[in-house]
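Quick start: read one record
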Amino acid sequence: MGRVIAARLAADGFDVAVAYVGSIDLADATVGEIKGHGRRGAAFAADIADSGAVSALFDAAEDRFGHLDTVVHTAGINRPAALTDLDLADFDEIHRVNVRGTFVVDQQAAQRVRDGGSIVNVSSSMVRVAPPALGAYAASKSAVDTLTRILAKELRGRDITVNAVAPGPTATAAFLNSTSAEEQEQLAALPPLGRLGRPDDIAGVVSFLVGPTGRWVNGQVVYANGGLA
């Protein structure tokens, strides 16, 4: 999802810094897509829950591009299990990445984004759907929603919008690799539109929120799920 969003923002005219953990090859491919749209791109490795690493990431992005107009935070993990079965180590990791990571990134974004800019977090429609086996994940994304709304108020006077996008089941590589064909078919049947979301569906919402026509949307959680809930 992050790759598609990065490419969409490049198509919209943004230079894009990509943060990654894991595959440098995928990060480089994303930078290649950004450059394919005629924009500057760069990739930087960072553990988004480590405040020092994230501060260094923002320093590197500012050094490369000069200033920051928009921050889009997509990082998140899930460890599906019933509440009674979930290992507390998995619970802690979910909240380290999804809650602490969002807090750390938003903290830096609030300090670095220029007045008139925008911040977008990625939440989840599972907060509203509240399905079994996703208690820890949905709780962590509920925290993302709350942080988003509060930060929008705290940035009063700077003309910075802060919003969250809450996708439903979306056909990312991670989703497709972690679910069976039967599960995918069942989830695709749930929304009235009768299909899974696509990464470009979510990228389109982000594009709107950070673009000139989205300036009056602030402090909101936008559910992008085909009518799932």
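The mean pLDDT is 96.
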